[in-house]
Structures are given as C-alpha cells and as structure tokens.
Specification:
pyridoxal phosphate; aminotransferase; pyridoxal phosphate binding; globular; 19 helices; 7-stranded mixed beta sheet; about 45% helix; binds pyridoxal-5'-phosphate; 12 strands; alpha/beta; transaminase activity
C-alpha cells in the first residue's frame, strides 16, 4: 500500500520536506529568496504544512467538548439564525463605525453576566484580544510581570505597549513570582509609591504544558505585597473556557476570584467550537480598549454568523447542556492516565528517559484534569512517536523549539469528549509499545537505528528527498 493511501497527512508532509535547492535556478529572485529560507526548514524536515485530521482518531483538535464534531453546536446555531431570518451576513464595518449593533451588545451583556463580570467586549480572536489588552492597558511607567510560558499573543501585545520593564517569572512558580514582585518594589519608586501599576499576565491552563496556574496563591502574594491594589491580573482562560468551573465558566469563577482579577480573556475557538474571543473587565478598561486598541478599531467587527455561533455556544453552557461532556472529558483523561501509567512498559520507558509525562505527577489528587497532555521526548523522538501514532491512524502532533523551550520537545495530546474509551486505551498502549521499541534500540546500543514507523516514513522520504538531520 502506498503512503498516500495509508496516511494522507503523512504523505503530504513527507512530500513537502523535499529541499528545492537547485530546482529554484530559474525562479524569480522574490520566490527564490523565500524558498531558500523555507529550504532551511526542509533540510531539517521541519517545514510546517497545513494538515487535515481525516478519519484518524483525533488527539489534536481544540473541540474539547466535541460541540463541533457532535453536531450539537450546529443545531443550536441554526436555531439561533432562524430567530433573525433577515440578518445581514456581513459585519458592515469596524466596531467604532457601523459595526456596532444591539445583537453584539446584548450578547456581551449575557456573557458578562454568565462569567460574573461587570462588562464584556467581544473581539475577533483571542490573539486580537491579548494584543489589544497588552498594547493598551499597561501605561508608560507600569511594569508587566508574566509567567515565562504565556502565549505568543501576550508577547505580541507587550511588544507594542509603552511599557519598558517586562519581567518574566518562572513558570507556575509562586516563589519566583514573589521574588519578581519584591525586586520591582525595590527598584521602581513610582510603583512602590502607588503611582504606577504592575500588570500580571498568566494563563489558566497552559497551552503547551496543560498545567494549571496556582492563581489563588499568586493573587494572595500580589495582595500582600501591593495592598493598595496597584498589582492587577490579566488571566487568559483560552483553555479553561467551557471545561473548567460551574457550567464551564472558567477557572476564575471556579475559584471565586472574579473580584480579584481585573481582566479575563475567554476564547471561543476551542471548547466553544466557534471563533473569536471576549475580554471581561470593568467599564473603565472596556472604554480604554475601545479608545486605544488598534487591533480592535482597525478591523471589522465580528459578522453576525460568528456572533450567532458564540450565542449558541453560550446558550448550551447556560442551559447546562455541556456539563455531561465536561464530565466525560474528565473520565477520558483519567482513563488515559490510568492506562498509560499501569502499562508494564511505562515505568521502564520513563526510567530510561524515552519519554515522560509531567502531568502524571499527583494527578489523582488534582481538583480537575486538563485535556492537554504533553508526552515529553528527546529531540526528534517526538517525530518518531508521531509517526508511530499516525501509522496507527491516531492524530497527534510534535511540538518543538521555538514553540516550547529547547530540550522540551513533545507530542502534544489533546483530548475531547467524543474520544471513545477504546481509542484512549489504544493510544496509551501505542505510546508504551513505542517506548519499549525505543528501549530495545537503546539497550542494543545501536545509535542511529530508527524505530519501525520512522524507518517506514524515512524510506518514503528517501525515495524522493534527502534524510539529513535524522541520524
Ligand atoms: C493561551 C491562548 N491564548 C490565546 C490564544 C488565541 O486564541 P484564538 O485562537 O482565539 O486567536 C490561544 C490560541 O492558541 C491560546 O492558546
């Protein structure tokens, strides 16, 4: 059977890694310059390609509650469209010009109420939301303190802000957070004297690590060191929206910290299976954003169908229609962790450094489990594991530097409510079987020997391209 028939996604990826090199001789300078840069990625078999999951078991999409794949959201969405049969499909303009209307304002009020927030401001994407917040809210003289693993969109926003001092703290490390705040108090007189603010950026569930911010502890430290309230939090709920807290209202709601967090960002592109985001804040912050956020006013407001999908998603949350999926998701993650850790090969593989699963530590005592589970491997081995899974028709993807720190290559697994127990058990078994295969290779001292799936993929690759960089 050919590669194209066996695993179409892999076939496309293999084909795309072929270095173009000499074939570019007659290309325009414009294209050649770009292709040369892409060739550097191809030479390492790291060209990113757009891929489709196809019929594979899905361990990569963000449809955590399966609202999209199950069709539940479609039904609610079509019902919502039917309520306004004469709707205007287009957005008609920027929110500041013609793009504002009763529908979006009512929806914002409903969303604010659901999450226990004074106000809400809908944006076209979570990325745009973070860019708007961080480029606009921190004023000159403020300091931004951020968890070292915050999302790229926060960095994008920070880079556009007027803030000069931006201090990372060690990921999820409360002591490092405290040290960072203390050193700011020592060095920044305007902040110490209460004339300027510290804006703190954290995520609820980290997108590449799947671990949860110790938000309650961080809030306590900030309150202790800044009793005047000039240290304020911006919490990104992208991965907790819909899956954490009462009816999926998020981590801040589940911890009762609505009054302690100045700004929250929820995204609709993940568990809510739509697109867009919402900034939850007070009236002052909302007005500040409307007046200053370039990502907001130099773009059209979300179109009516986009808003209708968001409204339909929130209706499902509010009615409790997603609670069963929330519970099922928890059960599936639990099944995965149990099956993986009780497999006879698991300890062997972990002890030998073939892979490890940081989230395995103490998972039984966590208040909830997270749907993002990275399997950390040595560099390139994350590709070997991906090939192994893809050939078994399981979709999961490798992640490397610069998306994650060097030395922390991984296969990022993402679970959703409609993953069947059988799929989950097969996945856990497949990972451990691959672990055993790698262990055999390691024990045999045969450096450079590839595991079976990688051999197969590279033989396809070698038929049409070079294999530099894999051995
Ligand atoms: C933590 C976090 N924040 C924000 C975003 C951006 O969200 P959106 O897809 O709505 O632009 C993402 C998406 O990957 C994310 O993981």
């Amino acid at each position: 059977m050919s590669l194209a028939t066996q695993v179409p996604m892999l076939a496309e990826w293999v084909k795309a890694q072929e270095v173009k090199g000499a074939k570019l001789k007659n290309a325009s300078v414009f294209n050649r310059n770009l292709e040369e840069m892409l060739d550097m990625r191809r030479a390492e078999q790291k060209l990113i390609t757009l891929r489709k999951i196809g019929p594979n078991s899905d361990f990569s999409s963000n449809d955590f509650l399966s609202l999209g794949s199950s069709g539940i959201l479609r039904t609610a969405f079509l019902e919502e469209l039917a309520r306004l049969p004469n709707f205007n499909v287009g957005s008609t303009g920027s929110r500041l010009l013609s793009g504002n209307n009763d529908y979006i304002e009512t929806l914002e009020n409903e969303i604010a109420e659901f999450h226990g927030s004074e106000k809400a401001l809908i944006v076209n994407s979570g990325f745009e939301g973070n860019c708007s917040i961080f480029s606009t809210v921190p004023r000159a003289g403020d300091v931004i303190v951020y968890d070292e693993l915050v999302h790229a969109s926060v960095h994008e926003g920070m880079a556009r802000s007027a803030v000069i001092v931006r201090e990372p703290f060690r990921h999820n490390d409360v002591e490092s957070f405290r040290d960072t705040l203390e050193s700011i108090l020592e060095t920044q007189a305007l902040i110490r004297d209460g004339h300027r603010c510290v804006i703190i950026a954290v995520e609820t569930i980290y997108s590449m690590d799947g671990d949860v911010t110790p938000l309650k502890d961080l809030v306590e430290v900030a309150k202790e060191l800044f009793p005047a309230g000039n240290a304020q939090f911006v919490v990104d709920e992208a991965h907790s929206t819909g899956v954490v807290g009462p009816k999926g209202a998020g981590l801040v709601c589940s911890l009762g910290l609505q009054k302690d967090v100045a700004i929250r960002l929820h995204t609709f592109s993940k568990a809510l299976s739509g697109s867009g985001g919402v900034i939850l804040c007070n009236d002052t912050v909302r007005t500040t954003l409307i007046n200053n956020a370039r990502p907001l006013y130099f773009t059209a407001s979300p179109s009516y169908p986009t808003l209708a999908a968001i409204k339909a998603g929130y209706r499902l949350l509010k009615e409790g229609a997603t609670e069963q999926a929330q519970q099922t998701l928890q059960d599936r993650i639990k099944l995965f962790l149990t099956t993986l850790s009780s497999h006879p090969a698991y300890d062997r593989a972990v002890d030998a450094g073939i892979f490890h699963v940081p989230l395995m530590e103490g998972w039984e005592s966590k208040p909830f489990l997270t749907q993002i589970v990275p399997i950390i491997t040595p560099e390139k081995h994350n590709y070997f594991l991906t090939f192994h899974l893809q050939l078994l028709k399981m979709s999961a993807y490798p992640v490397d530097f610069p998306v994650v720190p060097k030395g922390e290559s991984r296969v990022r697994l993402v679970f959703k409510a409609t993953n069947t127990p059988q799929e989950i058990v097969e996945l856990a078994n497949a990972i451990c079987e691959w672990g055993d295969e790698m262990l055999e290779i390691k024990r045999g001292g045969k450096t450079g020997t590839l595991p079976k799936a990688a051999r197969q993929v590279y033989s396809w690759l070698a038929a049409g391209a070079n294999t530099n960089g894999f051995h």
